[in-house]
Amino acid sequence: MVDYSSDKQIKDSLYSDVANAIACSIKEDMHERGILICEKDIGVAIANKVQGICVAQRHDTFSSELAKKSNNAQFMIMGAKVIGLELAKKLMGPRSNSEFESRTSTAKVERINHYDQLS
Questions:
Q1: Which of 6, 17, 30, 54 pairs with 43 at a CA distance of 20 to 30 A?
Q2: Coil, strand or helix at 37
Q3: Global confidence as pTM
Q4: Considering 18, 22, 36, 38, which one is annotated as catalytic?
């Protein structure tokens, strides 16, 4: 585990800098997945512009599990003002370690990747 917190980054770093550092580390195979907890999580989702990296906002256990299983998301973000501590713990629990189910979702993810390559 690596801590990419803003206080560990260069002076005056913003959430977009931290999100980019995490996304790039995943793309460069330094890590398989990333988790970022910020204030609201909206800006981080918008700020991710690293090609090939899928970010998923996670606010409930159902979408949290499916973000990886159905969409192969590698980067999980949660808003501290959106969810409480106990829910955050659940979202980071064993079900969050689900694996991509290629038999049912490959075509969807390939299409997403196709559009990602066009940008």
A1: 30
A2: strand
A3: 0.81
A4: 38
